UniProtKB/TrEMBL annotation:
Top-level taxonomic group: Bacteria
Protein name (database record): Ribonuclease D
CDD domains: RNaseD_exo (cd06142)
Phylogenetic classification of the source organism: Bacteria, Bacillati, Actinomycetota, Actinomycetes, Propionibacteriales
SMART domains (UniProt xref): 35EXOc, HRDC
Length: 420
């Protein structure tokens, strides 16, 4: 579905060049940062009708926390609102005013946690990004979908801004308000497409799963996600990475500054690789010559020295802790039958995904396929596989499309090895 008067095709290298630029229909409203204005906004949105477009801006890359620094809303009969949550801390009264409405959010998994932190928790969501994936759109960013579905070009210039800045510049606020300007229209157009393609029930199940998902548990050994870790070759060097990462994390959390702005990952990896013998040698490393690294040099050296002195029994293991199967690349040697099952399962799921114009990962989580193939239940049959998928949080529509072919795949055998 496109706009009633779609723009003419572009002849430039940018396919969106001739699209009309999306503008604010009601102009830019003041940021709501005092109680009286918040009270008026709550009543306005309580009196509105239909779904509520909701978005939030964080300061990723600038702050340690993932808190919301701006909440944007739009609803029929209510207009748009830009709410600064920092002066209030708690916006549960605003959340309660719209709790019976469907919340339209783009990439809901990115915003729900920071919205919940300020007391805003929906009972119904419509995730336009996820819906775009179900419809097979190759690009599902908000600007791409608004362009493809509604025929408008959106601004993108402030997506990586530091939203903890106060006061927020007017151009940033325009950018933020535009994120909810046509979100409801996008939602309605996408629902039409979902129903036309027979995918509406799939979407409903996916949206419900977003709200039913348990809180994400912290991953074990988060220090192992340090960029460049592949260059760290031994357990003693891994201990340096861990010690520096943990020291940096404590400073970042205390100051609410993004860890990378205190000490870049490159510095951690350089120290782990060089294994400096003293503080002076650490200071000479290229990545430690910056002002930010130098400010906490005593802390960095104490971390490195602590790791250097650890007994072997306390050094971290070479590989990360993981409760799942080994990397798939090792299966052919370790368990050829499992490798054959995995190959058959991946092929079958990929064919179904292609037939329904879906990303394979949205049809079924790759980790679920690997776990099933590596250690399938005893006496594999359709009922057993169905139960396995359900236990691993697959939705009914996913089970209906994949359970039968996965049952067949679990009975695959490795091809006979050629004779010498």
């Amino acid at each position: 579905m496109t706009s009633a008067n779609p723009p003419q095709p572009s002849t430039s290298d940018d396919p969106t060049a001739n699209l009309p630029l999306l503008e604010l229909r009601d102009g830019l409203s003041d940021v709501i940062d005092v109680e009286s204005a918040l009270t008026e906004t709550i009543e306005a949105f309580r009196a509105g009708t239909g779904p509520v477009a909701v978005d939030a801006e964080r300061a990723s890359g600038y702050r340690y926390s993932h808190r919301a620094y701006l909440v944007q809303l739009r609803r029929e009969g209510s207009g748009s609102a830009l709410v600064d949550p920092i002066p209030f801390g708690d916006l549960s009264a605003l959340g309660d005013a719209i709790v019976e409405a469907e919340w339209v959010i783009h990439a809901a998994n990115q915003d729900l946690a920071c919205l919940a932190e300020v007391g805003m928790v929906p009972r119904q969501v419509f995730d336009t990004e996820l819906a775009g994936r179900l419809l097979g759109y190759p690009k599902v960013g908000l600007a791409s979908l608004v362009s493809e579905v509604l025929g408008y070009r959106m601004r993108k210039e402030h997506s990586a801004a530091d939203w903890s800045t106060r006061p927020l510049p007017a151009p940033w606020l325009v950018y933020a308000a535009l994120d909810v300007e046509m979100l409801i229209e996008l939602r309605n157009a996408i629902e039409h497409e979902l129903r036309r393609e027979g995918k509406w029930e799939w979407a409903e199940q996916e949206f419900a799963a977003i709200l039913d998902a348990p809180p994400r548990e912290p991953k074990p050994d988060p220090w192992r996600r340090t960029s460049g870790m592949h260059r760290v070759r031994n357990r003693r060097s891994l201990a340096v990475v861990r010690a520096l990462w943990e020291a940096r994390d404590q400073i970042a959390a205390s100051a609410d500054i993004s860890p990378g702005r205190i000490l870049p990952d490159a510095a951690i990896v350089e120290a782990a690789s060089a294994m400096p013998a003293d503080r002076e040698a650490l200071q000479k490393l290229t990545a430690f010559k910056g002002r930010g690294a130098h400010r906490h040099m005593r802390t960095w050296w104490e971390a490195v020295d602590h790791a250097r002195r650890l007994p072997d029994s306390e050094l971290p293991k070479q590989g990360p802790r993981y409760d799942g199967p080994p990397p798939a690349r090792a299966w052919a040697d370790r368990d050829p039958d499992a490798a054959a099952r995995l190959s058959a399962a991946r092929t079958a799921v990929a064919e179904i995904a292609e037939a329904h114009r879906l990303p394979t990962e949205n049809l079924l989580a790759p980790d679920t396929i690997r776990r099933l193939a590596w250690s399938p239940p005893n006496d594999v049959n359709l009922d057993v596989v169905t139960k396995f998928l359900r236990d691993h949080h697959a939705r009914p529509w996913q089970i209906g499309l994949t359970a039968e072919v996965l049952t067949d795949a679990m009975n695959s055998e490795a091809p006979a090895k050629p004779l010498d």
